[in-house]
Amino acid sequence: MDWLGPYNKISGGKVIISRLHKKRHKVKAVLIQAANSLYRSDNIFGHYYRRLKSRLGPKVAKCAMARKMAAIYFNMVTKQKEFDPNLFEVNQSKFKEKRIKFLEQQLAQLKSVA
Predict the structure, then answer these.
(1) Is pTM beyond 0.90 here?
(2) Does residue 92 contact residue 45 with C-beta atoms inside 8 Å?
(3) What is the pLDDT along the chain (114 residues), one digit of tens a residue?
């Protein structure tokens, strides 16, 4: 899945070029289109996509979700197991707990300043 990831040219520890590959893979186009459709979906993939998009931007989020879907598909085909969405739900609940804890700490700091 090298064709799905970003192209980073690094020299001396500095990123000189960072972009997506320009190759025209039919599978990549379908996966990117599927990832793009997750923006308004109300499921675990949609929540994960929106979280990535807010942090990294739309292009990187699409590429990351396309890669995640490709990895899930690859694991389903090679290991002959069906996808288990409970893993995503566990991670989502951990993220929510961590976010609540962070916001409570931020609120306490604001109260101490004011």
Answers:
(1) no
(2) no
(3) 455 566 667 777 777 777 666 667 888 888 989 998 988 888 888 888 998 999 989 989 999 999 999 988 998 999 998 888 887 788 778 888 999 999 999 999 999 987
